[in-house]
Amino acid sequence: MIRRYGLGVGLAALVVVLDAITKRWASIELVDGDIVIIPNFLVLTFTENPGAAFSMFENAGPFFGIAAITVSAALLWSLRLDRPWMETAAYGLIIGGALGNLVDRVFRGPGLLDGKVIDWIDLWWIPTFNVADMSITIAVGLLLIHAWLARST
User: 121 near 44, Cβ under 8 Å?
Assistant: First the structure.
């Protein structure tokens, strides 16, 4: 059980650190212009998002900050139970993604939880995102695969 808890917490910490490092890099290197990796497909660009995914619910940062704290606490509590490794990994990725964006909401605004989240990966038709968003998306994929595998056995 402790090994699985360590997996979840370790993945969460890794995501928070990678997210912070890449957002710092983006805030230094991309503010003066984009970096085109593959034209019309992958561009690194600096954007600030005051809302949620797809820039919806602009200026609802405090709501999403409280949601991130609540979800992270619930999943951390849930990690104490023995569960399959894929589910544990997914929970760790969700916690890391939620806390990664929470760091921006806490430290990048004038008030509590109203900071703008840095997004910097612009992939074709998908709205601009960051490492924290990517980890949550990967986690959802892992949970879907886990559910499919559990159902087919």
Answer: yes
Report whether pLDDT(145) > 90: yes
Residue with tokens 């499919």: 148
Average pLDDT, the chain: 92
DSSP SS3 for 81 = coil
Residue 133: active-site member:
yes
pLDDT of the residue at 54: 57
Backbone angles phi, psi at 129, to 5 degrees: -140, -175
Whole-structure pTM value: 0.92
Residue given tokens 């569960």 in the structure block: 83
Total domains in the fold of the chain: 1
Q: Which of 19, 104, 122, 133 is catalytic?
A: 133
- Region 123-131 average pLDDT: 93
Q: Which entry of 19, 104, 119, 122 is annotated as an active-site residue?
A: 119
Separation of alpha carbons 23 and 131, rounded Å: 8
Neighbouring C-beta atoms of residue 15, cutoff 10 Å: 26
Structural contact between residues 112 and 124, judged by C-beta atoms closer than 8 angstroms: no
Structural domain including 147 reads: 2-151
